[in-house]
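Tip: read the tokens left to right.
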């Protein structure tokens, strides 16, 4: 992905483990925001979580990649 993307009210239908090798991922859920920008960090998301998702490409490589 080469451009920032945003998804409103994205539902994780299954429990999910996320890692972002390149770029930044932010999840907004109510008043809370969680971010992943370090390729050595994992994020666990509970089943049926509803969140606004923001994906931002890396400033140097201009790419976003994630694994779940």
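Filled-in amino acids:
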């Amino acid at each position: 992905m080469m451009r920032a993307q945003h998804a409103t009210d994205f539902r994780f239908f299954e429990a999910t483990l996320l890692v972002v090798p390149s770029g930044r991922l932010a999840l907004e859920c109510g008043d809370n925001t969680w971010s992943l920008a370090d390729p050595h960090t994992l994020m666990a998301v509970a089943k049926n979580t509803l969140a606004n998702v923001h994906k931002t490409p890396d400033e140097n490589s201009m790419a976003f990649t994630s694994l779940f």
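Residues 19 and 52 are 17 Å apart (CA to CA). The mean pLDDT is 92.
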